Write a sequence for this structure.
């Protein structure tokens, strides 16, 4: 996870989206950028998590996703799992706390939900325990 | 019962460690009260009227006796320190959503309690906050004779999926899912944000009928069916679609309009279409995963009946049994899927204790009964009682004797004193009025068991405020505490139903006139019941009489017993 100094502007060429924007409708514009900033006007307003999931899962967009606005250290595990790659923390937040927050569910400890990256990897490997929904449906329809 | 894997265990310990880190930062002043609040809520820690309140999840109501003993230890060692209010401490309170609450644990010791809970495979994760809450189900899951499919494996899969789901931790508002696997809905699914009904289609495949947008609060709404059949292995994908649409489009400008029921009502078919589009898009995505059969099998293996079917014991000679025992058999003992077995409710509704409350000693007593008579397993019921799921028919008489000694054998299940009540204004910071004194007055008023049995089946539900934790909307009689000019008033409703066969499809009750003063409530409820006893048809239950007669005769009868509120009525 990359930390962007809260006192600096976002890197040039970052597309800033509001958390009410329809990311699927703006796919073309998003694809023209390397970096998108998703906003948390309040840290308890969780719309940007779903926006990030749609960017990764639906659009297969591989650029940087930056969390901006009221971003707290304790949000980091959720942000990472939804596909964010960078954060600009609220100015009073401590980077060391944020890094520690990432460590509680780390290593061997697998969360219950596969992140998009894990899903994609497993689907590619044709992992024994996981079937893709499409393959399964096609099989059913063929039968 | 589901037994935690090493992975599950590490997970709840990691969560406890994360919480300790947050608590310590808060106590050191590095995490403000405002920022700490949503974090502690998602671990079950409220700050209530006098002290913090901890809500512990008992997923889909299944509880091991060893877990109940740990809860007793928490009540004894943590719920009685330094409260300084001279209040009753050292107890827990079972809720309508299969949770248990403690009221007097100092926040400084909260991390210790989370570690203790993790040690017995328990947690308070997502028992509060604007996230997916504890998954609830039928207390008779896996043992009910009318079961179509055992809901517990699916509940456990849902529990795991919803636990710390990163996308859905900060929804517009709280989100409650209930699952029923039987013909009769004993889980009040139509009153939930998502209600799931397990069924089999014509091909014999297992799937779910999905309801969305039920809820209580100030706008009672019965959930809308959005899918008649979603195959079991796609249910997480379908729920993901529902919750994603809600997360993106649910209102966040007004907490009273933020539940999914408001979105479903406002958007109607457009909401259903949006969910179906999202579901289709997810199914089209080759990386979307369905629940693998092997995973269902792994989880389902935990729920294989712990006893063999077909065991037929020698029946105890119940014919010449004492009348009190026969009465208990009639009310507290329920039919079982396996011959020779019965399910037995341990009543937590008795004089001198608020509904659903249990002391540390009583928890240990109930744990001992479960160990002796029910293979160490208990259930927490929606009606705030405990239930023993594996009682041998030939041990009923012995169990009755011991349950009586422990104060668990009041033969009142389903009767007027088996009421649901929230903790109310005595403990809860949100409440407008107290629930406990109303429940106590009614328990005393209807203490006569013969009278209770004559009145028969009736659901009496009491909420101390419009948040409806006491499910007043679904009561055959509902009592709602309201605040006017700083004093306590109570609104009465009749004719509601939670969805069980007794009262048919779920529906909210109808209001009987203006609010009553606290000291009029017991008289008014007695008046409601007198109308029923006077006008009932042979075999008719209260709820049916109430619906047949409509509000008017009940209003007349309750107006006649008003005292302080009578003047206001004529003005």
């Amino acid at each position: 996870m990359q930390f962007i100094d809260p006192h600096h502007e976002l890197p040039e060429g970052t597309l800033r989206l509001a958390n009410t924007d329809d990311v699927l409708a703006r796919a073309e514009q998003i694809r023209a950028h390397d970096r998108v900033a998703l906003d948390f006007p309040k840290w308890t307003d969780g719309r940007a998590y779903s926006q990030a999931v749609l960017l990764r899962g639906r659009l297969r967009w591989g650029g940087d996703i930056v969390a901006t606005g009221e971003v707290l250290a304790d949000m980091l595990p959720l942000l990472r799992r939804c596909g964010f790659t960078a954060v600009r923390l609220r100015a009073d937040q401590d980077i060391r706390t944020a890094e520690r927050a990432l460590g509680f569910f780390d290593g061997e400890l697998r969360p219950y939900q596969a992140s998009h990256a894990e899903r994609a990897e497993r689907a590619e490997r044709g992992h024994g325990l996981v079937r893709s929904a499409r393959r399964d449906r096609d099989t059913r329809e063929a039968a | 019962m589901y037994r935690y894997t090493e992975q599950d265990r590490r997970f709840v310990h990691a969560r406890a460690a994360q919480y300790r880190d947050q608590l310590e930062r808060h106590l050191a002043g590095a995490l403000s009260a405002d920022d700490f609040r949503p974090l502690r809520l998602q671990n079950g820690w409220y700050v209530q009227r006098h002290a913090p309140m901890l809500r512990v999840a008992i997923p889909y109501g299944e509880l091991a006796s060893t877990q109940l003993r740990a809860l007793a230890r928490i009540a004894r060692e943590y719920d009685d320190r330094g409260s300084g209010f001279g209040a009753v401490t050292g107890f827990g309170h079972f809720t309508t959503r299969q949770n248990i609450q403690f009221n007097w644990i100092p926040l400084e010791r909260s991390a210790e309690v989370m570690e203790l809970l993790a040690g017995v495979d328990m947690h308070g994760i997502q028992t509060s906050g604007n996230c997916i809450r504890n998954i609830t189900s039928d207390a008779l899951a896996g043992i009910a004779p009318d079961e179509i499919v055992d809901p517990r494996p699916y509940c456990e899969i849902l529990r795991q999926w919803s636990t710390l789901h990163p996308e859905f931790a900060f929804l517009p508002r709280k989100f409650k899912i209930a699952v029923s696997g039987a013909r009769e809905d004993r889980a009040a699914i139509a009153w939930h944000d998502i209600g799931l009904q397990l069924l089999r289609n014509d091909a014999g495949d297992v799937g779910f009928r999905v309801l969305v947008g039920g809820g209580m609060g100030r706008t009672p709404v019965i959930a809308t069916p959005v899918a008649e059949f979603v195959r079991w292995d796609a249910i997480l994908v379908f729920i993901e679609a529902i919750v994603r649409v809600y997360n993106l489009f649910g209102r966040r400008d007004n907490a009273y309009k933020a539940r999914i029921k408001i979105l479903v009502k406002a958007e109607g078919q457009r909401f259903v279409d949006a969910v179906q589009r999202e579901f289709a898009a997810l199914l089209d995505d080759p990386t979307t995963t369905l629940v693998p059969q092997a995973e269902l099998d792994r989880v389902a293996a935990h729920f294989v009946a712990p006893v063999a079917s077909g065991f037929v014991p020698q029946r105890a000679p119940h014919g010449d049994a004492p009348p009190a025992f026969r009465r208990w058999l009639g009310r507290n003992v329920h039919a079982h899927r396996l011959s020779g077995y019965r399910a037995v409710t341990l009543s937590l509704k008795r004089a001198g204790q608020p509904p659903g409350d249990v002391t540390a000693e009583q928890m240990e007593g109930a744990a001992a009964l479960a160990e002796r008579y029910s293979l160490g397993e208990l259930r927490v019921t929606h009606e705030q009682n405990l239930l023993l799921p594996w009682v041998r028919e030939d041990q009923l008489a012995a169990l009755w004797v011991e349950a009586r000694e422990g104060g668990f054998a009041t033969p009142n299940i389903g009767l007027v004193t088996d009421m649901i009540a929230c903790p109310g204004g005595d403990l809860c910071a949100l409440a407008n009025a107290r629930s406990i004194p109303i429940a106590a007055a009614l328990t005393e008023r209807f203490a006569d068991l013969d009278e209770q049995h004559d009145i028969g089946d009736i659901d009496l539900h009491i909420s101390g405020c419009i948040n409806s934790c006491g499910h007043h909307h679904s009561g055959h009689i509902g009592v709602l505490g309201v605040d006017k000019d700083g004093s306590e008033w109570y609104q009465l409703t009749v004719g509601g139903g939670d969805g069980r066969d007794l009262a048919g499809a779920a529906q909210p009750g109808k209001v009987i006139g203006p609010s009553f003063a606290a000291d009029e409530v017991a008289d008014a409820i007695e008046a409601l019941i007198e109308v029923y006893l006077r006008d009932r048809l042979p075999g008719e239950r209260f709820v049916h009489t109430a619906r047949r007669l409509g509000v008017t005769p009940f209003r007349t009868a309750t107006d006649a017993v008003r005292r302080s509120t009578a003047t206001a009525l004529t003005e």
Observations:
- The helical segments of chain A are 27-31, 47-57, 76-81, 95-101, 116-125, 133-142.
- The two ends of chain A are 45 Å apart (CA to CA).
- Chain A touches chain B through 47 residues (CB under 8 Å).
- Confidence is low (pLDDT under 50) at residues 126-131 of chain A.
